[in-house]
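Write out the 3D structure for:
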Amino acid sequence: MVKNLIVSIFLMIFAALPVFCADVLPKYTTNLHTKTYGFYQVGKFIQLHEEADENSKIIQTISWTQDKLMPEGLKYDDVFSVFIGSKELALMAVEDETEDWVKLIYDNKNNKSGWMKKDDPYKFMTWVNLYNSYGRKYGFKILKDTPEAVLSLHADTEDTSQVVAQLNHPEFIKLNVIKGNWALVTVVDLDRTPKTGYIRWRSDDGVKYLFPAIK
């Protein structure tokens, strides 16, 4: 009897605790869309239209908090490319853009998108802007299915340029500067000796190999 009472009290306390979602960050190259312009930092209410026109059909509305996503049944990693609940940071991939509107991918699995009117033009970040901002602050991580051929530091921004170092298990990748699809980085590897050189952060057809290690 006492045991059952203790279990019941424990379950009641556990049920009352807030349930926080897991953060969403890309782990594989396939988690990031190739034919996109960058990201838009969305607020807690997202209204998506069929066209870049306030009178056009509303095709989806989404609202979110740190521990709840509506409508029910949606998953954070289906809607967002990046979601850090503790920072209230929610980024959605931008498929197209006008002066006042962004076309956001709201279903990553099925590549569904809709137009949202911008509430702040500075919330749109191109890939280069995103990498410069968050890459400088947090450094980079290498996405898990990145080809071995990419894991080399080069003397210049050419695939045929001299390889100055191979990356084995980098502990930290610091961004110095981005030049096109290449990034000049300083890497601390297992041997703890800093190495500097160029690495491809993006292929010529838009596949990303690195991503800011946002925390």
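The chain has two domains: 19-119, 128-212.
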